[in-house]
Amino acid sequence: xxxxxxxxxxxxxxxxxxxxxxxxxxxxxxxxxxxxxxxxxxxxxxxxxxxxxxxxxxxxxxxxxxxxxxxxxxxxxxxxxxxxxxxxxxxxxxxxxxxxxxxxxxxxxxxxxxxxxxxxxxxxxxxxxxxxxxxxxxxxxxxxxxxxxxxxxxxxxxxxxxxxxxxxxxxxxxxxxxxxxxxxxxxxxxxxxxxxxxxxxxxxxxxxxxxxxxxxxxxxxxxxxxxxxxxxxxxxxxxxxxxxxxxxxxxxxxxxxxxxxxxxxxxxxxxxxxxxxxxxxxxxxxxxxxxxxxxxxxxxxxxxxxxxxxxxxxxxxxxxxxxxxxxxxxxxxxxxxxxxxxxxxxxxxxxxxxxxxxxxxxxxxxxxxxxxxxxxxxxxxxxxxxxxxxxxxxxxxxxxxxxxxxxxxxxxxxxxxxxxxxxxxxxxxxxxxxxxxxxxxxxxxxxxxxxxxxxxxxxxxxxxxxxxxxxxxxxxxxxxxxxxxxxxx
Length: 489
Known about the structure:
3-stranded antiparallel sheet; globular
């Protein structure tokens, strides 16, 4: 695939952070858009509660703001006069093991992507194969993929040490715009700020995505909790960033470019919103309305009841995709709480039922494509219609519905006793390029064949899913001590 085509693909893939995952309107009567709730900000590694309830479907009442005094941001650290010595990671006393040959083959195949796309100058990983450009969502995936590879024995200790120290050195010197938050896009070999069309952005006018930052912060939290020798350094890096801007009035808050500056906007829809809000809680950043007051309603798809977000493309300027990705990442990385489990179970059930009804193996997701429009959200439900595959502007491409490789691996890791997830996993096992890593998937239309796009998220999430299996199905945020404590309970 030509570089220009790959570049178009990945640039399309991140436009959702500036259009269809953000709210552009704020009518005063809509509590889900404007209700004030203060947030608290503390960078602490041990304050995440896996059992916090998410909302059950009901009519949203006017929220009451809790009496909380926001804490001041941490002071910026004093400059370090000399570079810090490289840190050797703590020895892993009990490495997780992949006992099945198919899992070992899959792990090595997914790691091929990282071997090809890691930049030794910066420690950043390309968002798509051979594309020197990235977002922070993708770097969150990169961190978790590298963590999984080290834990699974694919990455030797000295190379893990090299990659971590190179990345941390880059983050310590990361150029920041006036917002005090990392810009939406960067060059992976030079760390120059870039616009979403991959042109230079020296002033950082692209804004920020709270969804992207939440995933990256989750990855940093996994690193600081599993490898305590990096904790202080990671915490000092994060204190440079104005994290208070990520939440406004209890909602997730992003920023998009507008004439003359940036416009701050509510960002995220049901699923993505809660995944990101729980990720931010790892740093004690509280998006209380995102967790407690999202406007949901019930719909039926093929006779199965599901929650969807009332904020759709027509009434908010952002599409309410109901797709697998945020729920699967939530399960692999943090673990589902009881409140979200019925939604997850019905999400799998409706895909399995579509397969029984049509004979079409179904594993929906957001994914990059190997042809225009280069990125689609394939959803169970979006903008009032079932089984929609739409681009960021809401245009439908039903001819390009696809089976997602990362969804197939993740569903099996999370629910291995379900015959349907085993069928998905078997189907996805060989959807790979021996030199580049795993492909995004296969089109449901057999005449189109494989979706030959290769990107960081597919390959990182495959590695995550395999580590989740090898850890006895324990979420990735749990370090060894927390995992042992959970097993004793």
